[in-house]
Task: structure prediction
Amino acid sequence: MCRNITTLRGLDPGATDEEIEAAARQFVRKVSGVQATSKLTEVAFEKAVVRVVRATADLLDELPARQQPPLTLPALRRIGRSSTGS
Result:
């Protein structure tokens, strides 16, 4: 559905709270069509992000370990690598 959301299950080290929130925000942006919040959309948007974060964290905690790591690193890890020169 959203190409910018990467697989978080199977990361080593595991997905951080920041990575889970970034994925949740991207998901909520996509399904709501809200790219930038306004006074009218902010409360509902942030409430949805919190719910998706919780559901995602629960899902990752409950799933068994992956046999192989995901093919693509989350954006926050790609950014971190390029700034360190790795």
